[in-house]
Design brief:
- The chain is of the alpha+beta class.
- The protein is built from 16 helices and 13 strands.
- It has a five-stranded mixed beta sheet with strand order 5-6-1-7-8.
- Helix 5 packs antiparallel against helix 6, helix 11 runs antiparallel to helix 12 and helix 13 packs antiparallel against helix 14.
- The longest helix is centred in the last third of the chain and has 21 residues.
- It is globular.
Length: 405
């Protein structure tokens, strides 16, 4: 048995912890530089605001419906996420933190009434952290994810799902006929891993509901679509195929990008932004214990403006894999100087670290071949840099080309 604990409208809920006056009002949290909506309260969803909608398309709701728009505060969200996850871990013996607001819990060996236990953990999170959440329980991770979706929407869709399943939904407590009714009422795009394109393909052959999906032959699904969808079908049928991961896999690429609040034209301003992006990416790289072999840098204008368009990127190979901020920043700035052209109003820039590999000890001949006798000291310097920024806040110590805020 698995449980999925999911914070409701997480970013908005975090803001409401410190601003209770926002309760009951339509609220959206905007992406970097207030570009588009990345979180919506239920009241905002009721206005028809979709995820990712640009702010300029919905700002009229501020006057007509009292919509409140807030700039994202990811440091706050990360802190509250850590507190929420520590409490959610009390639900079972093993935990997989799937995202900033979602956590899978392995319920193997947990005795007693799982619904009552989940309600207690949910109440504790709400009381101690202030974040409302829902819990879904199922025989597989896919079923737990689907049960969580039912728990989140049961109050808003009383005609679709039984109201008693709101907040906590345990599929194992339902009769086969009750479960079949829920599956028949749930569209396939609510299933974990079934995206827009796959939904179109399945709908084209008459597969509209989760019930339709569960009735498919897994072997046929593998032949016609993919082994990934076969695994999803088996999980919906109650056969566990996705194990709990106690530690996330290292990322194969690390990116740090941002849309600017206003057009940027000067090279020195771009250099400051690229330095900051490369520094953040380097810190993430060290955090997962990896090194990068290449650094990609890109700049582009906005496709939504009528200005002359310009979009360029360049990949700069490193002499040898590194996680040193100064090395990565130097490569990113070298790439920026190569692709930069005057006269364009640039709207976005970013840095991506490629060819990631484990941060193993370099062979002696590599370290000594170029006279690099201070590699250990450089590594210690980066560790110290990370510790200072973790203790006193991001950007406390930074590369000089980042500029002064």
């Amino acid at each position: 048995m698995f449980a999925l604990v999911d914070g409701n409208n997480f970013y908005v809920s975090c803001e409401r912890v410190f601003r209770p006056s926002l309760n009951g009002r339509p609220v959206v949290v905007l992406s970097n530089n207030d570009g588009c909506a990345v979180a919506r309260s239920n009241e905002a969803k009721a206005l028809g605001i979709a995820m990712g909608t640009p702010w300029f398309k919905i700002q009229h709701f501020a006057e007509s419906a009292g919509l409140v728009a807030l700039s994202a505060n990811f440091a706050l969200y990360g802190d509250l996420s850590d507190r929420m996850m520590s409490l959610a871990a009390g639900l079972g013996p093993q935990q997989e933190i799937y995202s900033i607001d979602e956590s899978f819990i392995d319920l193997t060996g947990v005795r007693g009434n799982l619904v009552n236990r989940s309600h207690k953990v949910r109440s504790r999170i709400l009381q101690w952290v202030g974040i409302p959440c829902c819990v879904g329980i199922g025989q597989t991770k896919t079923l737990a994810k689907l049960a969580n979706q039912v728990a989140k929407t049961a109050e808003r869709k009383p005609g679709t799902y039984p109201v008693q399943l709101a907040q906590v939904c345990d599929f194992s407590t339902l009769t086969p006929s009750q479960l079949e009714s829920i599956f028949a009422s749930t569209p396939i795009n609510e299933v974990w891993g079934v995206g827009r394109q796959l939904t179109k393909q399945l709908s084209a052959v008459g597969i509209q509901s989760v019930l339709d999906l569960t009735r498919l032959d897994p072997a046929m699904v593998k032949r016609r679509w993919s082994i990934v969808l076969e695994r999803t079908v088996r999980e919906l049928q109650g056969t566990p195929c996705i194990e709990l991961e106690s530690a996330p896999h290292p990322k194969q690429e690390i990116a740090c990008t941002r849309s600017f609040g206003h057009p940027v034209t000067a090279l020195n301003h771009l250099a400051e932004a690229i330095t900051e992006f490369a520094s953040r990416a380097s810190e993430k790289l060290r955090k997962q214990g990896s090194q990068a072999g290449q650094v990609l840098c890109f700049i582009r204008t906005s496709p939504f403006r009528q200005d002359e368009q310009y979009s360029r990127s360049i990949t700069v190979p490193l002499r040898r894999p590194s996680a040193d901020t100064t090395v990565i920043v130097a490569a990113a700035l070298s790439g920026l100087r190569t692709i930069y052209k005057e006269g364009f109003q640039l709207a976005k820039a970013g840095v991506m670290l490629l060819e990631l590999q484990a941060d193993t000890v370099q062979q002696q001949e590599l370290a000594w071949d170029m006279g690099d006798r201070d590699s250990t000291e450089r590594s210690n310097l980066m560790t110290t840099l990370d510790k200072i920024n973790q203790r006193y806040g991001k950007g406390t110590v930074s590369i000089a080309t980042t500029g002064l805020s």
